Amino acid sequence: MTINNDRLKSYFEAMSLIGKLGETGTCRPAHSPLEKEAFELASSWMKDAGMVTRIDNFGNLIGRLEGSNKELPVLMMGSHLDSQPYGGRFDGVAGVLCAIEVVRTLTENRFPNERSIEVVSFADEEGWRFNKGLFGSRGILGRLDEKDLTRTDQDGITRAQALKEFGCDITRFKESEYAPGSIYCFLELHIEQGPVLDLANLPIGVVSGISGPLWWTVQLKGMAGHTGSVPMPIRKDALLGAAKIIVAVNEIVTQVPGAPTVGTVGTINVFPASRNIIPEEVTLTVDLRDIDLHRRNMYEKQLRDRIGEIAKMHHLTYEISEDTNNEPRYCADWIKGCIHDTCREMQLEAPELMSGPFHDAMALSYACDYGMIFVRCKDGISHNPLEFSSDADLATGANVLLGTVIKILNK
Ligand SMILES: [Zn+2]
After folding, report:
1. Residue 203 CA to ligand 1 centre (angstroms)
2. Residues lower than pLDDT 50 in the chain
3. Residue-level pLDDT at 323
4. How many angstroms does the Cα of residue 208 sit away from the middle of ligand 1?
5. How far is the CA of 361 from the centre of ligand 1 (A)?
6. Count of helix runs (H) and strand runs (E) in the chain
7. Residue 138: its pLDDT value, please?
8. Are residues 148 and 260 in the same domain?
């Protein structure tokens, strides 16, 4: 049994026209009329595949293929159809469209599914509009927080208002939640959004887990002074300290060659930012990720020590505030096994790799076992109109997903 490559390609082509930006880009904000249009199109394909569709009160699109035994927990798969404001055609879209094609293939071949299958396009995975993502996937699991509905977008529209305009009834969230134990497992196919597969010249990867980010804001304080007169030995130059911290982050995360640890200083603010004043204050952000929490904790300790030493050396005071601290979430071994077996049958070499970015699967990981399939994307470019995965790779990914689903249904 294999998927229909031409049909899958036509799905991507038709979807790329909704919220089209320039030649190859997409702008499809969460809870927007454009996302509604995308839902209507995807919903028509779900119906063609034999699914019954609905939009729930969190703004998720859900297609359900009823199994012969309604009591069994559901096999869920999907991703998201919302995009970044300056996004591409594949992030999220790949997981939804490939899942629909998998179900279409199963029903065309009259595959007898005892277990029900659901394909979901989760609401607001991206999180840029209201500055917090994974809304729909957290919603169905009862994991929203107090402020989720009062967050506003650039135009001052609250999420509550946007959901209402989308047709959701925010007083009836409970009805859209899934009871504990009602989801058997979750599968998400996603473009890699990194260059590992492209560099290895391989189309498919098996995800080992989603690494949890540790996010810090570091503030360094020194002393301003005239750049022409203060002698070097007595300076308190906060930017010099910051420069050494940036280098330290890089050195710490690269001590084990080949390890997947990544560390980045992504923003830096200098005060007073004048060419003839010694920098007095610097604020920078640190993003540290690893699939191995023990190693990440060890590196965190090393970095704290280094920052202490650097501050002392340059007579600076400092403060570290923790903004986010998520633990890694590992894919289930038995699902990875199903994906690996499928790849072997297809004679595909599929390496295991971790996901640095988070996905809807991360929210689902708190409710059920999950697995993820990565599809190669050109040069690792994502969140950019240049994002590209080939039709052939997407079709291969969909076939891996199909084989995995069949193995799970046969269990
Ligand atoms: Zn995504």
Report:
1. 18
2. none
3. 86
4. 17
5. 10
6. 12, 15
7. 96
8. no
> Residue 408's closest CA among 360, 366, 373?
373
Structural domain of 277: 212-325
Q: What is the pLDDT of residue 131?
A: 83
Outline where DSSP puts E strands in 235-280.
262-271
pLDDT of residue 146: 84
Domain check: are 332 and 320 in the same one? no
What are the tokens at 114?
């005892």
Say whether both 177 and 220 belong to one domain: no
The helix-helix angle for 333-345 and 391-410 (nearest 10°) equals 120
Q: How far is the CA of 94 from the centre of ligand 1 (A)?
A: 9
Ligand 1 centroid to 127 CA: how many Å? Answer: 10
Contact 56, 62 (CB under 8 A): yes
The model's pTM is: 0.89
Distance 81 CA to ligand 1 centre (A): 8
Q: Are residues 128 and 202 in the same domain?
A: yes
Asked whether residue 374 falls in the same domain as residue 317, the answer is: no
CA of 84 to the centre of ligand 1 (A): 9
From the CA of 273, how far away is ligand 1's center (Å)?
37
Instruction: Quote the pLDDT of residue 408.
Output: 98
User: What is the structure's pLDDT at 324?
Assistant: 84
- Residue matched to tokens 């360094």: 220
- Which domain-ending residue is among 303, 325, 347? 325
Span from the CA of 277 to the centroid of ligand 1 (angstroms):
43
Cis amide bond preceding 272, omega within 30? yes
